[in-house]
Design brief:
The protein is of the alpha/beta class and about 375 residues long. The protein folds into 2 domains: about 240 residues, Type I PLP-dependent aspartate aminotransferase-like (Major domain) (Aspartate Aminotransferase, domain 2), CATH 3.40.640.10; about 120 residues, Aspartate Aminotransferase, domain 1. The protein contains 12 helices and 11 strands. A 7-stranded mixed β-sheet has the order 1-9-8-5-4-2-3, with helices on both faces. A two-stranded antiparallel sheet has the order 6-7. Strands 10-11 form a two-stranded antiparallel ribbon. Strand 2, helix 5 and strand 3 form a beta-alpha-beta unit. The longest helix has 19 residues. It is globular and about 65 Å long.
Amino acid sequence: MEFIDLKTQYHKYQSEIDARMRTVLDHGKFIMGPEIAEMESALADYVGVKHCLSVASGTDSLEIALRALDIGPGDEVITVPFTWISSAEVILLVGAKPVFVDVDPIDYNLDVDQLERAITDKTRAIIPVSLFGQMPDYERINEIAARHGITVIEDAAQSFGATQKGRRSCAVTRVSSTSFFPAKPLGCFGDGGALFSDDEALTLKMSAIRTHGGLQRHHHPYVGMNGRMDTLQAAVILGKLPHFPWEVEQRNAIGARYSEQLRGACVVPEVRPGNTHVYAQYTIRVGNRATVGEHLKAAGIPTAVYYPKCVHEQPVFAPYGYKRGDFPVAEKAADEVLSLPMHPFLSVADQDRVIAAVKQAVQQAR
């Protein structure tokens, strides 16, 4: 059984993906070829915003957004400690100070009740992470940020395709970021990512920063980077995109079925009112994770842990004075979460096999 079945996905869409890639190989425009603009337009339409800007990775997208907002030394940026390191790493990359806010125990997203007390006169941005596939309460986050004149950047690396009160992830903040890493809900065949915004001036500045700090060749008004997405990767996205709405429906259905069958055996993910969930990772919680994981491994069920150590506990953040115990909800989640196989091609028989194995593993671990 595959944890994420990218091989089946490719074979299902092989004719479209291969045709798209062959077109790139024929025209030879491997950097900023016509597929880039086509993909950006299609993704902006899907999300429901004016502008999409493709970039080399989800990490680059966050760094580019911070740079375009002129955030740097002396500034503070708020994010969460329970996430992949890139959400906080980019804050260090621009020279700003990361400020962490604990997560909500239900959805593992930023605990909005604790947000305002973390804001200071140095706070310039908030990067909430839409973890595992659903969005935090952006209505409240945006209201708090607006009151303090702070920009919100949605880190939607795991929630592309999800909605909140009818609005898609990547369309609810001034600027948002996603990743097309192969294992994401919409993935390419390497690294890739995108930024989304209705702000034309900000988008132009981000576009310049993406290409060595300039929109015109040999003219560089900003400190930039080589952050462009390869044309071949855009071709892969274009081959997959027509099938993406179906994949999102499948993820919703499989996640809901898992939760219905597993509720009571373990802590299952809860979908907040007004949200849909794309289950980038279908993540349960168990108090004896290591033992449960070993039983599942013996039963042939692959699992993964996202994430076994909180960001504030990583050595690179030691200079900021954080320690274990500072964010107890995030730390407890890091000790207990376990992700199960999840992808749109998971058969009912395989779903049943996972469900039965989890129930048995939890029983055996007691």
